[in-house]
Predict the structure.
Amino acid sequence: MGGEPGGRPRLRTARPLLLVVDADPERLERCETELDRGFGADFRVRGELTAAAALDCLRRAHEWEQRVAVVLVDHALPDADRAEVLAASRTLHPDARRALLIEWGAWADRTTASAILSAMSVGDINYYVLKPWIGHDELFHRTVAEFVQEWSRYEVANLREVVVIAAGNSVRGQAVRSLLARNGIPSAFRESGSPLANDVLKYIGEPDPGAGVLVWMPAVGGAVLHDPTDAEIAEAWGVPTTLESEDPEFDVLVIGAGPAGLATAVYASSEGLRTLVVEQESIGGQAGTSSLIRNYLGFSRGIRGSELAQRGYQQAWVFGAHFVLMRTVVQLEKRDGRFHAVIGDVGDVTARAVVLATGVAYRRLDVPSLEKLVGNGVYYGASVSEAHGLKDRYACVVGGGNSAGQAVLHLARYCKHVLLVIRGEDLTASMSQYLIDAIDAAENVSVRASSEVVGGGGDGRLQQVTLRDRRNGNEETLPIDGLFVMIGAVPGTSWLPDEVGRDQRGFVLSGSDAGVSPLWHEGRPPQPYESTMAGLFAVGDVRCGSVKRVASAVGEGSVVVSQIHTHLKVSSDA
């Protein structure tokens, strides 16, 4: 059995490749030296002077099933040569990180800047890397190390912190993998009965789970879980699923741990408010499923939604915020100026103010034949963990928002073809331009406008999808292996007390909308994010009239804290 240090199972023993292409022999040697110094123990470093040699290297690595982690290409190569190398690395090694090598100060050159921006906009590169100008160039090392870390998260060959073993068509197995991905927990999937799964089972001394699911956590003491619930997985990983303190009284109760809820937790706890966050599914909400968010301030080469969410979670935790995950607030009422909430399987808590940040869910297709295949080729949301399984297959994404665009581009790295289906005439009204440009440039992506999914099916797994043209009613059935539905926005607010005003679609009224509601009974106007129930605030996607963007949600979550302070002061003075 091949193994990691200590005998742990792994897929391949050959070291992954770091490839650098530079026509200048002296600069190429410097890059090779720096790469070998920083990464030579775990990676093979190879330098090539010409595009032809680099292409040959990439093709041989593909033929021999060798892993390529990072490809660095000199921006000074002829345009055609540079494009050919980047295209080959993208096609043959879709998990590899790709970057342009540029000289210090070259960003001021318009031609160089244009090449970088153009290559990033269409997904040819992930970013640029400044060439090392001295020995032990730590900036160069750090940039490449970040690329390596990003690559390692997608590389299926690596032994991960969590290993999931289940049948390939196991709905529960897929749900567990999705849960781990959405919560930013690195994991690897081993199909039951495969040599890889058998290696793991032999190492840990466990039988094949058959129709069940086995979860092994080598990073946290080697815990082995048989058919675990979501809460059991979270607890084994060290995620809080119950109150860590015996004191059930809080200043602020935040319901939902998406971008808005996490921002509220960070700012409230940093300002001394005792804060509790309750999340029923995964940290990050819908944003946490995004494979790459490129237009969030401060992350110039983009960031995965789950990583952004994990950073927010850790930041709030450092400030002292309390979290209860995988649990649901099942009842909320206000008595004697305080909010009383019941958390399922946890108990009762009280708070002086409540922030509702529950976000929205995607609307169901209402196609019975497809609903039967949820988890077996049909997914609601961007199931990033399924992309590898669709290599060289056909995928379809339904939806016209940014999340749908990000899912399309992620799937396009692996799939033979990705079809984007939208109800509108084009994408301009609902999707950011940088995503539209990248979709237009992707050769294996097409857009079907003014269309909707009306049917589909398969023998135990999705095999086909039927589309209807909304303009003429014509229907067409296409071979599709993976369907990702990301349409509509349904707020889960039916559980709220009647005193909380909502619009016809269920979004929570706030500010001036709440002030004109007959449910508002205070002798003052409500604050901008305050609902018709004084002291209960709504932020993010669940709020009526909100802008459906991550940055907007974070902004609302931070701003609402000042309104909470005002509410607490007024309540204390009353």
Summary: DSSP finds 15 helices and 26 strands in the chain.
